Amino acid sequence: MSPGCHDGGGGTLALAAPHIALVGAPNAGKTSIFNALTGLRGRTGNYPGVTVSRFVGTCRVGPDRYVIEDLPGTYGLRPVSPDEQIVADALDGHLDGVQRPDALLVVVDATTLRRSLGFVAQVLARGLPAGLVVTFTDELVRRQGALDVDALAEALGVPVLAVVGHRRHGIAPLRELLAGWRSWPVPVLPPPVDGPERDAWVDSVLGFAGYRAAERHRATQRIDAVLLHPLWGTLVFFAVMVLFFQTLFTLAAPLQDVVAAGFDRLAAVVAGHVGNRWLASLLGDALIGGVGSVLAFVPQIMLLFLLLALLEGVGYMSRAAFLMDRVMARAGLEGRAFVALLSSFACAIPGIMATRTLPSARDRLATMMAAPLITCSARLPVYVVLIGLLVDRSGRIGPFGAQGLVMFGMYLFGAVSAMLAAWAFKKLGDHRGRLMPFYLEMPPYRLPSARSVAITVWDSAKSFVYKCSTIIVATTIGLWLLLNLPLHSAAQLQAAGVDPGDRTAVAAYTIDHSYAAGLGRLMAPVFDPLGFDWRINVGVLSAQAARETFVATLGQVAAADGPGDSGEALRGMTYADGARAGQRVFTAPTIAALLVYFAVALQCMATIGVIRRETGTWTWPLVAFGYLTGSAWLLAYLAKTLTGLLTG
Amino acid sequence: MVGTRFTGRQDRPERANDRTLAELAPGARARVVRVVAPEPATAGRLADLGFTAGAVVQVLRRAPLRDPVLYRVQDYDICLRREQAAWVRVVEEVEG
Does the beta-carbon distance from B63 to A325 stay under 8 Å? Predict the structure, then answer.
């Protein structure tokens, strides 16, 4: 086991505090209860040795602290997946490093109470002190249902509380209930968990509690008639996808440019006010540039997350999963994986985090291995520059601009290769383990509260900035140092025939003799077959921090060769040495190789970090890095050869 | 299957009409007889989801690509793939 595995460990939080676990079905509203109790001070981690995220937080009631653990959602305690095994083991105290809960809080949705009582029976039979939280009671009443909560408590023999989590109704009484957990009873006679006896027990409990089931939600029925219709449903689905990508291109990309431009100006101001040229560049290019390259993504990440949170909150994501399940099944995945891959078009990090909704651990791994192949927004600026070099702006194929078509092709290439990768990883892991049955609950359409949407968006933005900033800023500074060291004294420069007063010449000389150039030349045997020269190698190296820095680095390197338009400079760049000296670097085959390399290679340290965190081991990030970088090289070589044959 | 049908109205479902949930068309209603899954754990899970003997299942709609299918059981909506639906033996409820 690797160090740092226990970051979510409940034991480190508060040893003496009572440990209360939340259990319930996936859509019962467990998470909003957890958030309301812990006030978003929850910490995530992993259960030891498995790809299952663990959520632990503390709740204060008066002077007392309670450790609240949000166990993975499940419909039953007879596990059919490793994740559900966690729930069963946690309740029995069979989980290494995880303390057995002192008491359980069972969360059930009032509108699905008939089904949920079977689960309640299984939980009560575990012999732990238990309390019941009934959610969505407002919706039950709105849909002409009825439930007497006090009578339900009497029938079950445990305390029952109605809580409308997203409106925060009943949270104060819930905290009081929590404080009195020691008086929660363990049912003397555990309810039957199987067969006709269980059904009879459920009937008698419901009868005693005066339960009347909610009527079918009329609006849901009517909306589903359109949204799940073979024709209209498919059209709406494509319209939603178009909306998603329109947001990405027409709103998010310009926002990113605005933030990036702001940071460029800030860097220029800093550079102008700091006397020492070296320090000015370190502050301006490396520090502000690094922070800027992270923050430039925040507006669009938040925008896309807002869209995803709205679609999820309303209930459309379950419908999208329903519509896409058959397509995802081709890659051995299921509908929910589509949602994770869709998020990856914004950024692989939220996409990988979204795999938490997948009930099967094997599906989750396959999706994580595939997600980095989806064209994320950091690849976009790189593609724009490279396609600009490859295809003439005015070129047309039929009614479409050639540049746009190549861009579309790159997105398609990313999506198709992601599906292939998922299929391969699913196949590889298939010979062991049970086949996971597929089922997906379709909740009624609900208007999400502004609060819950805001929490989701804020949470994702926060974790994005937190995860990325340290890694990207550190890598940017490291690369800057590599590009600018060693220092050259005026005497050295003059000895080399460079005028120390000529900034461009000095910059060119510094980069040419930097450690980075040394590394770039060292990598030459690897990238030579792809047609990359040492300057591109430096760019590829810098892209390892975050892909979009490739553009800036290449611009820096090209501009150092001669001032002026960096696009023109790149176009005219020639090999400095070797057999191809004097020939142009950016020929069609080289650009094609670069495009394919960027499409496939795992060049994002933040993605590696998040895979490590989600899987709890270094194995999977290393597998992802190895297979993606290896195939990137092979496919780039193939692309270069093919383009070379086509263009002669 | 038609051959075993009685003619005329009846208020009692036919035993001979025992088939799987996957064979039913949207709009049909059926009563679960038993769940026969390759593994006990999966059969147990379908029971946890509400597919218990005697439960009434309504077939709501098929996905545009025909799989999965949306069902209503125990007052809520859930979709199953054809493969899982085939494990649920049902008797179709005749309207009227």
Answer: yes
Q: Confirm or reject contact between A154 and chain B (CB < 8 A).
A: no
Question: Does a cis peptide bond (omega within 30 degrees of 0) precede residue A372?
Answer: no
Residue A483: pLDDT band by 50, 70, 90 thresholds? confident
**DSSP per-residue letters across A99-156:** PPPSEEEEEEEGGGHHHHHHHHHHHHTT-S-EEEEEE-HHHHHHTT-B--HHHHHHHH
Query: Is A139 in CB contact (< 8 Å) with chain B?
Result: no
Residue A559 confidence class, pLDDT cut points 50, 70, 90:
low
* Ordered DSSP codes for A359-378: S-HHHHHHHHHHGGGS--TT
Residue A448 CB neighbour total at 10 angstroms: 17
B67 chain-A contacts, CB cut-off 8 A: 325-326, 329
pLDDT in tens, A86-139: 888 888 888 877 888 999 999 999 999 999 999 999 999 888 999 999 999 999
pLDDT at residue number A546: 72
| Contact yes or no for A115 and B83 at CB 8 A | no
Nearest C-alpha in B relative to A213: B75
> pLDDT tens-digit profile of B5-27?
333 344 444 455 679 999 999 99
Q: Which of A229, A338, A439 should we substitute to test contact with B (largest number of B Cβ atoms within 10 Å)?
A: A439
A199/B49 Cβ within 8 A: no
**Do the interacting molecules here have an ipTM over 0.90?**
no
Nearest CA in chain B to A228: B63
Report d(CA A146, CA A67) in Å as an integer: 33
